[in-house]
């Protein structure tokens, strides 16, 4: 992506050779996906998985098979951080570098991997066996530090478990055996649970309590499109991904659009750091999700659907594929669903490849179309012209699950829960400095205090609501309520106690946005870099009081002039801490003495010239003697 | 403009610039006479005074900082002037000299710049084949800095060079306390 590789590359790595790819293999891979350019991400993922790199000659061959130019293929290959144009190891270890992991001893875990494998972060071993990388939040903040080893997840790492894993890998064991000796004998659901704990701490009435099978879908087949949409509208259901758009309205827009085809897409790309609620739904309620998508398909008249699964959740793919297959077998997907003639709907799983921006609706659609995950200009909105130009409903995993339950239990059942404007329950993924991190399904309307008491985080000094693109609040705001109208969140609640450095957190979040900006809009691509540098200035104690105005002004520009939600929210870590923790900033900024800038260091500025001229400075070297 | 007003002291300096902005000051033409009723000129190439004789109300800086002497002069101006004005593009943004900042993907950008300027450049006629290194030459900075990165700047007068009209207008307004920023027409591109 634009600035994408800034974190991991450049290290003077021992490099390994390109694996020679037999003639015909690339052709076979492209043929698997019908030589369809819209399946480019699948094609390139397959190449990456098999050959650990997308070599220059591969780019050419993929381009010729899919009838694209090489640069178009390279545009996709270079965009996603899980695809690599240089050779990577057969086993790639991606350590999650989220701020929560950093506060959970990530540094020591990293040191162990580096020591055992003999390479640093960003490097690949010379024999091509291992690559070691950092990656942003992989959705395991409740069991940090965590790592991806190819498609296998390791969680709650300690220096000891990290050493055992690294040594086993070095001895040639497969990543799967780190999980279980008989990994292949386990069901996909068992595999997922062996790797990742659900950590469901509080099951609510709607999603995580007892859920009857396909009760919503059974009701929906007897209803017209308009009746289904009316039920969803009357329930007051709003999108659970963060933006909170009214779901019923979205469906109605799409349904009223006359087109040859309609699409239903599930956004399972929860990349917002600190968010991991969809992970649990995908593990425990996959049928409910597909049921909800099938109901949406019935409502808008879609015959095809896509589940866009974030690359970090690749370990859940076998489970989803199994669920889809089972439902096809039981007549719940495919042609004539539940025996209703003309009710045809099927779903494919589209894997992402490590790009936060693809959680944005337009970028997600671009990614499904086989393009770099760049947002689209709005309007037209996806409900009017979305995937491949057809009307498309994109909803979050949780939203679809809610919809299925609403069709079962009725709109007023759902509407009665929560508060005015924020109806039903919400999954909160809570992590950070608390006793019981995990998933809490609660009706809307709880105060932050109440939630902190529930999770054992009473000594919180700061709470990040909604992830980095949300708000950081201080104790004086803990009475505020978790609703769309007060503190809105897609689910992430990250708790920080008084030992944490607010500016360190802010700088981390800004580096995250710098890394994840797609680079299309200049204010976002460059502005976030400038914001990060300005925060570094504060951390070094070199900031002036005017720098606070600079932060505000530049933040305003980025928000106003970016075309998608990333740039519109990326300054939030700074703006919300300026508002809620003003003393943190004023404590570390001071007016410059005599108007001379402390940030300009004359000694380092003339150092190069001193060496070239082989003499010292008459002006600035005080001990100068001829 | 009342005669009762005490005269303001102004100072000017040209750092890493082409002296074009100072030429533009002269473009004020006959209105200089009017301006001189309001000001005395202290340290400046226009008076050829090399040092401050006393504290000044306004310092005007042309050019950014490309060497240590520029930094030294700029520090001196900041310490001796109540109000400091960056005049023209080089002072504000680094301008043409800052083109050397574009040598980024090099381990030794300054060395590369000097080599091309004095030794390897296609059109160089330098019979000594050396980079000048007289002890009297100030050391170059690693890159060219706009004035605002080295000291606090109070006002910027944009242009390359700013016209005599704009300089006259801005100075007159500043001296009479009437300056309220520039019209959009003056500061927008094209």
Provide mean pLDDT of chain A, rounded: 94
Number of strands of chain A: 16
Strand-pairing-aware structural class of chain A: alpha/beta
Q: Number of helix segments of chain B?
A: 8
The secondary-structure element order of chain B is: EHHEEEHEHHEHEHH
Total of domains of chain B: 1
Query: In what order do the strands lie side by side in the largest sheet of chain A?
Result: 5-13-12-16-14-15
Q: Report the principal-axis shape of chain A.
A: globular
The CATH class of chain B is identified as: Alpha Beta
Q: In CATH, what is the homologous superfamily of the domain at 215-411 in chain A?
A: NADH-ubiquinone oxidoreductase 51kDa subunit
CATH architecture of chain B: 3-Layer(aba) Sandwich
CATH class of the domain at 215-411 in chain A: Alpha Beta
Structure description:
The complex is a heterodimer of chains A (626) and B (190). Chain A is built from 26 helices and 16 strands. With 626 residues, chain A is an alpha/beta fold. Among the domains of chain A are: 17-79, Arc Repressor Mutant, subunit A (Orthogonal Bundle), CATH 1.10.10; 215-411, NADH-ubiquinone oxidoreductase 51kDa subunit (Rossmann fold, 3-Layer(aba) Sandwich); 503-587, de novo design (two linked rop proteins) (Up-down Bundle), CATH 1.20.1440. In chain A, the strands form 4 sheets. Chain A has a 6-stranded mixed sheet with strand order 5-13-12-16-14-15. A 4-stranded mixed sheet of chain A has the order 2-1-3-4. The longest helix of chain A is centred in the C-terminal third of the chain and has 18 residues, at 522-539. Chain A starts with 24 loop residues before the first helix and ends in a 13-residue tail after the last helix. With 190 residues, chain B is of the alpha/beta class. Chain B has one domain: NADH:ubiquinone oxidoreductase-like, 20kDa subunit (Rossmann fold, 3-Layer(aba) Sandwich), CATH 3.40.50. Chain B is built from 8 helices and 7 strands. Chain B has a 5-stranded parallel sheet with strand order 2-1-3-5-7, sandwiched between helices. A two-stranded antiparallel sheet of chain B has the order 4-6. The longest helix of chain B is centred in the middle third of the chain and has 13 residues, at 68-80. The radius of gyration of chain B is 18 Å and the shape is elongated. The model of chain B has no long low-confidence stretch (mean pLDDT 93).
């Amino acid at each position: 992506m634009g600035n994408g590789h800034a974190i991991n590359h450049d290290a003077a790595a021992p490099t390994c050779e390109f694996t020679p790819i037999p003639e015909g293999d690339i052709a076979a891979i492209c043929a698997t996906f019908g030589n369809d350019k819209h399946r480019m991400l699948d094609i390139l993922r397959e190449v990456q998985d098999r050959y650990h790199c997308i070599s220059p000659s591969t780019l050419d061959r993929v381009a010729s098979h899919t009838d694209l130019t090489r640069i178009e293929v390279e545009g996709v290959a270079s965009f996603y951080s899980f695809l690599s144009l240089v050779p990577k190891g057969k086993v790639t270890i991606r350590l999650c570098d989220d701020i929560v992991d950093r506060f959970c001893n990530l540094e020591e875990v990293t040191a162990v991997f580096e020591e055992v494998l003999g390479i640093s972060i960003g490097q690949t071993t010379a024999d091509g066996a291992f690559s070691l990388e950092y990656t942003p939040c992989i959705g395991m903040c409740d069991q940090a530090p965590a790592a991806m080893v190819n498609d296998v997840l390791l969680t709650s790492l300690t220096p000891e478990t990290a050493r055992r894993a690294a040594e086993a890998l070095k001895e040639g064991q497969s990543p799967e055996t780190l999980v279980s000796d008989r990994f292949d004998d386990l069901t996909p659901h068992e595999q997922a649970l062996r790797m990742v704990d659900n950590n469901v701490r509080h099951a609510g009435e709607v999603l995580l309590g007892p859920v009857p099978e396909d009760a919503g879908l059974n009701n929906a087949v007897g209803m017209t499109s308009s009746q289904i949409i009316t039920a969803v509208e009357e329930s007051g259901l709003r999108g659970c991904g963060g933006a909170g758009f009214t779901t019923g309205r979205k469906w109605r827009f799409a349904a009223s659009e006359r087109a040859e085809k309609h699409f239903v897409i599930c956004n399972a790309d929860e990349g917002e750091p600190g968010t991991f609620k969809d992970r649990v739904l995908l593990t425990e309620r996959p049928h409910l999700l597909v049921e909800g998508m099938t109901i949406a398909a019935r409502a808008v008249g879609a015959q095809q659907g896509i589940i866009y699964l974030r690359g970090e959740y690749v370990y859940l793919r076998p489970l989803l594929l199994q669920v889809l297959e089972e439902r096809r077998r039981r007549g719940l997907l495919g042609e004539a669903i539940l025996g209703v003639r003309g009710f045809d709907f099927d779903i494919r799983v589209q894997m992402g490849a490590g790009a936060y921006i693809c959680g944005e609706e337009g970028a997600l659609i671009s990614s499904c179309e086989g393009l770099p995950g760049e947002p689209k200009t709005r309007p037209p909105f996806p409900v009017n012209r979305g995937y491949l130009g057809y009307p498309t409903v994109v909803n979050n995993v949780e939203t679809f699950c809610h919809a299925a339950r609403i069709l079962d239990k009725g709109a007023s059942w759902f509407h009665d829960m929560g508060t005015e404007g924020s109806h039903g329950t919400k999954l909160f993924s809570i992590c950070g400095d608390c006793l019981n991190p995990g998933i809490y399904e609660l009706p809307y309307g709880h105060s932050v205090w109440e939630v902190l008491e529930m999770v054992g985080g009473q000594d919180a000094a700061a709470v990040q609501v909604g992830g980095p693109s949300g708000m950081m609040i201080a104790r004086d705001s803990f009475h505020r309520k978790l609703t769309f109208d007060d503190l809105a969140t897609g689910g992430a609640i990250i708790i920080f106690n008084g030992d944490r450095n607010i500016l360190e957190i802010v700088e981390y979040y800004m580096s995250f946005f710098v890394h994840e900006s797609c680079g299309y809009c200049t204010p976002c691509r460059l502005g976030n870099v400038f914001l990060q540098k300005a925060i570094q200035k504060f951390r070094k104690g070199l900031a002036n009081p005017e720098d606070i105005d600079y932060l505000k002004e530049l933040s305003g520009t980025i928000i106003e002039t970016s075309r998608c939600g990333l740039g519109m929210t990326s300054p939030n870590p700074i703006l919300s801490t300026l508002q809620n923790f003003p003393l943190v900033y004023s404590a570390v900024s001071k007016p410059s003495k005599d108007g001379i800038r402390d940030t300009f260091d004359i000694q380092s500025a003339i150092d190069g010239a001193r060496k070239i001229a082989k003499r010292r400075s008459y002006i600035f070297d005080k001990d100068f003697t001829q | 403009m009342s005669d009762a007003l005490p005269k303001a002291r102004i100072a000017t300096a040209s750092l890493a610039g082409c002296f074009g902005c100072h030429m533009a000051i002269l473009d004020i033409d006959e209105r200089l006479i009017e301006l001189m009723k309001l000001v005395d000129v202290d340290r400046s190439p226009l008076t050829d005074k090399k040092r401050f004789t006393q504290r000044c109300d306004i310092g005007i800086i042309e050019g950014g900082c490309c060497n240590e002497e520029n930094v030294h002069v700029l520090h001196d101006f900041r310490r001796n002037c109540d109000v400091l004005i960056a005049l023209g593009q080089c002072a504000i943004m680094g301008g043409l000299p800052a083109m050397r900042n574009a040598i980024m993907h090099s381990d030794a950008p300054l060395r590369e710049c000097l080599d091309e300027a004095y030794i390897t450049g296609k059109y160089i006629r330098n019979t000594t084949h050396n980079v000048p290194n007289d002890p009297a030459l100030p050391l170059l900075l690693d890159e060219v800095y706009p004035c605002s990165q080295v000291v606090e700047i109070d006002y910027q007068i944009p242009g390359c060079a700013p016209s005599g009209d704009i300089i006259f207008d801005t100075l007159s307004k500043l001296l009479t306390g009437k300056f309220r920023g520039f019209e959009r027409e003056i500061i927008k591109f094209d």
